[in-house]
Here is the input.
Amino acid sequence: MNRIVFIGGKGGVGKTTCSSAFAVYCAKMGKKTLLVSTDPAHSISDLFEREIGLEIVNIRENLDAIEIDAEFESKKYIDSIKKNLKNIVSTVIVEEITRQLDAASISPGSHESAMFDKMMEIINEKEDQYDQIIFDTAPTGHTIRLLSLPELLGSWIDSLLMKRRKAVKLSKMANSQNPESVENDPIVKILTRRKNNMEKARNVMIDDKKLRFIFVLNAEKLPIEETKKAVEILKKYNIPVNELIVNRILPEQMQDDFWKNKKALEKKYLDEISEAFTSQKIIKLPLLQNDMRAQYIEKMAEYFKDVY
Here is the structure.
């Protein structure tokens, strides 16, 4: 099994339940496991019935967890830039840049960028500390945008680096300083470090020996269509999807006409899933009689023995 696993899918299909149950299964198998929630709803605290939060905490034997908060990470990142700027530019310029940074912090994509930075940090810094890192991701569209950020941000950072190196070089020449020491500039160092971290994370993401993507769906029309599109998009990023989890399968024996019709419809969609996803292993999880809570997660975890 790949060390890093992303579990994604359409909103409402049960990603958090599946991510948590898989994490519990891995931990029971003796693997040191980290469960990471990137979903703004942060339901893993509710599921495990305990506070988890922004720092890694141990929640069971061999199982740690963390909930990433995009708004918090965005503010932390902007604050760190402001702090660095105070040491290298004048007060007047700091005030102007601070206004621009405050505007940027609420612009579209800023939270996703901050979320990606935190995911990169976890992948880069924790990969060697855990046997298994499982990401409970946000709904499909959000997750795919996250995965596309290395390409988008990589070009943007290259552009910033080019402009900054040129400005520093001209400044040093004007002050009769050695123009070759551009790489010692604090902003160049920050941008270079971010670019290197991003490239390292991207290399992990496209390495099918390290990263695995599992999609969760229900046997219904919309989740099936969304999964088809997502699998095709991920192919463009060289990220294979090897498993699908079809969650909330109805019991075989139904008594009244309503549920008999629902079961017949489910069978039709299960057939469609089998025909559409011939390259993926399909894992079927039953609809539970009770809401998923900590006391039932062990039972759900047993179904993940087929993933290994």
